[in-house]
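Hi all, posting the design record for the shared folder.

TITLE: backbone redesign
STEP: 1 of 1
STRUCTURE INPUT:
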């Protein structure tokens, strides 16, 4: 819009320059015509004052003729009439040009003012939207940080649970290994033997289940860490955008003074 207004105002300036040139030309013609008429009036007044008793009277034979270059009465009247008519025409044209200039300045001033208000309102809306988006991201980040803390605690608990299975497993294995040295017929498959084998199997299943949960939890933790990084980057972008729009652009725009142009004819 500003570029279009600049182009329009430049057009008005060019039109005004041409009109001013025409006015100066008319002014120059009128001044020369007036000057010539004042000179002629003075000469004719002097002639009118001459009489037979006037001093300095003499014969001028070279002047007793009609100068072929002299103007006819019709041309004389037309010359002044044309100067006056053209001057009046340019005066009217100048008034119209001035009215057009005033109207253009008034209209462009209003257009600029409306556009400035529209842009300012867009800035305010956009800023509010970014503030809301940034607030939501910060809330999500806080929730993600809490989930990361909870997940770390869960992983630590799973690792501890797996670690605690190590001693019972060693005890069961030690018992089985020790009983394997029973001599001769004493190496019997008694309920204790089956119980120890079952105990090892149960502990193994438990450790495997805990390990699976640990792997799942660690995968979730990596996802949470990735989400946390993405949220932090997004918040940084929103913060920078807010700083540009709110702290720089809007602050700069507040320093601009938009003055409406009043029409004065």
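Okay, here is what came back for every position:
SEQUENCE:
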């Amino acid at each position: 819009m500003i570029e279009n207004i600049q182009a329009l105002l430049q057009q008005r300036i060019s039109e005004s320059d041409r009109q001013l040139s025409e006015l100066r030309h008319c002014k120059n013609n009128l001044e020369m015509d007036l000057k010539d008429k004042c000179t002629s009036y003075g000469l004719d007044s002097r002639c009118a004052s001459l009489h037979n008793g006037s001093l300095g009277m003499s014969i001028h034979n070279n002047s007793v003729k009609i100068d072929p270059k002299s103007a006819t009465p019709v041309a004389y009247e037309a010359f002044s009439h044309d100067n006056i008519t053209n001057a009046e025409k340019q005066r009217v044209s100048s008034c119209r040009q001035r009215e057009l200039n005033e109207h253009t300045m008034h209209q462009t001033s209003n257009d600029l003012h409306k556009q400035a208000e529209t842009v300012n309102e867009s800035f305010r809306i956009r800023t509010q939207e970014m503030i809301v988006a940034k607030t939501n991201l910060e809330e999500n980040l806080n929730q993600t940080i809490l989930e990361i803390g909870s997940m770390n605690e869960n992983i630590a608990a799973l690792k501890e649970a797996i670690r605690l299975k190590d001693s019972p497993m060693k005890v069961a294995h030690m018992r089985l290994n020790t009983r394997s040295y029973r001599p001769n017929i004493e190496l019997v498959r008694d309920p204790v033997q089956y119980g120890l084998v079952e105990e090892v199997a149960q502990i193994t299943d438990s450790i495997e289940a805990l390990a699976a949960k640990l792997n799942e939890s660690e995968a979730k933790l990596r996802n949470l860490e990735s989400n946390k990084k993405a949220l932090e980057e997004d918040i940084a972008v929103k913060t920078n955008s807010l700083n540009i729009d709110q702290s720089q652009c809007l602050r700069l725009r507040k320093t601009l003074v938009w003055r409406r142009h009043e029409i004065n004819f």
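COMMENT: The mean pLDDT is 87.
Let me know if anyone wants the other runs.
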